[in-house]
Amino acid sequence: MHWWLPALIAAMLAIPVVFWSNFSKQIGTGRGFFLSSLKAIAIGLLVLCLLEPMSQFEQAKPGANSLIVMADASQSLDVKDSGRSDSRAKELSRLLDQDATWLNQLERNFELRRYTFDERSTNVVDFQDYAANGRASEILNSMSTVGRRVAGKPTAGIILLTDGNESTDPDLADFDWSQLPPVYPVVIGDSQPLRDLSITNVTTSQTNFESAPVTIKVELVAQKFSGKTVTVQLAGEDDIVIESQEVRRLEDGKSFAVRFKLKPENRGVNVFEVRAFEKGTSADDENGEATLVNNRRLVIVDRGKGPFRVLYIAGRPNWEYKFMRRALADDSELDLVGLLRVANKEPKFTFRSRDGETTNPLFRGFGNQEDDTAEQYDEAVMIRLDTRDEVELRDGFPKDAAGMFEYDAIIIDDLEASFFTQDQKTLLSQFVSLRGGGLMMLGGVATFARGGYDRTPIGESLPVYLDQRSPTPENIDYRLDLTREGWVQPWIRIEPTREDELKRLETMPPFQTLSRSRSIKPGATILASATGSDDETHPALVVQRFGNGRTAAMLIGDLWRWKLQSENENEDLNKAWRQTLRWLVSETPRRVEVLAEPDLSQSQLTRIRVDIRDEEFKPQLNAELELKVITPSQKEIAIASQQDSRKVGSYVAEFSSREPGAYRVVASAKSPEGELIEMRETGWVSDPAVAEFESLQPNRDFLRQIANETGGELVEVADLESFASDFDARKVPVSETKSVPWWHRWSIFAAAIGLLLAEWGARRMWGLA
Questions:
Q1: How far apart are CA 330 and CA 350, in angstroms?
Q2: What are the pLDDT digits (tens) for 38-49?
Q3: Which domain CATH number covers 571?
Q4: Fewer CB within 10 A of the terminal residue: the chain, N end or C end?
């Protein structure tokens, strides 16, 4: 039945009557128009319903689209917001209850697929067993995995309930957003600062300063600890506190640092723990903090590269070697081998020898005159000291790379260049540039320019020019001082403070032997200078990088005076030699180098790289490598490795750290013939809680970017029910058109009745009813 004509006639008759009746009663033009308008609009709405107007809109077709609900199950939700009695995890658990209104609203029109995620995503039937106990959260990786599972299927979107804190730094620039449907992050947690003391970063640095070769820097930040005092402890693997420091009068939100300096007693991999807590409490006392997980950190200190072998070769026995040998006698990191010349080459004359004697008379009476190890007349007489066995250096200074490259550093003292053959000179240069060893030359009458090292491969590797031809003046005393660059090098200093070091320099005896140099080479650095009694200043200690290694020139030739002219108990010279030689070998590579680095894209994956070299420090081909990982629970796991196609002599492996704690990896490398090359060890710490609790505030910026990139929107928990009730009206893959008559809308009738009541109320108020 078509109602439009009767409805139009009724409206045309009723509305004029309404206006006429109000104006005819002398109630005033303004009031009459107002009352007439209210009644006329109400009549118009009722007449409009008789015309049966229809509303059309797009709506998700019930059951045709899937909707994914992903809940964060990582430990970062185990935090209580300010003023809350329950943790974020418990509040999220209530949101995920099967009777939750918002879930029921969504389930009417969508096929809900439920997932929990931490390091990986897991499909669940419901959220009844939800628990936030995952070690780490991988938001992007988890969404990618789910996105691939539903690829090609009509998916309305992903509702992501999380605090937005990822275990790894998300690489948003390279992430493929097209693989995801619209994502609607629901922010779990408040953004208000929480009471918390957090260790944000721990770094280690190793120096050659003898008293404290390792520095552990602990960076912390506190919230709602203003004016409090915090205790920071360093403990060993046996949980015994090594050192404790206090930081007073904290400022909220302002980071501060504590440094521990120590000398690990054990070689190899050492594991330490740093922990922080408010003074007067303990490391296990919550004390109102949001979490205690970020109050502790494990740190690895690898002291496993030694012992380093140092070859000292000199043209004569001297005091320098004596004191150097004494200084290193009890040093487990340095192994000093001496090769000293006690007599120069000597021509063979018949009248000087006995009948049938072919060896140098200096060996007469030692019972080895006919031995192959006794020097002949035309050879210098050398003495070997502290060699590894009878074979080492039996033929004198090494003549090939295999023999020379087994040392980590070489020191030349008071020995002229002509002592070495041309091949040995070239090998010494390659020892530094290719092998990466350390070379130091000490000042003396037969070294540097006076030793004829100018225009030799050895001289080219040194950090000073050797073309000084002017005679060195005699009877001049030299005072040693540090340069600006020297002051910043810990291994140069003996005392811990600048004041004490200045006093030490003032009390040092003067030196009388100095090999003067015209200038230093580009890239070299003067760390110490010598000022003579003639007021001229000359370089005393110069260092530089040379290829893969480093070289040093100690131009003072009588450092032994430092010891002889000091008090007997003074150990400054011994300490100086230990620190200097540690610096010389600190970056020297070994034949087997093992490195363990975390994979930044996957929080628990560690990449292990092993570089293997042969005796000449060239990449070792076809080596046999055995890798063994020792887990925090002391379980040994053998892992396989493969050659790196991009680098010869390099082998790579991967290991997934399934439990938190300190890991060790032992690499055993063998030559193709099965001979053991070396065993090396390193370690790493798996601590996913570090990233999880790096920030306790929800990462809204990260979640908002996810929403913007995928076409979704950020949702607050308070708006979740209204969001769910209107979700079926959003653009979805499968939808249908619906038509609804206006007269089915209760709001139309409510508006009409409301207008009539308003008109009646106005009449009563004005006394017209």
A1: 47
A2: 777 777 777 666
A3: 3.40.50.880
A4: N
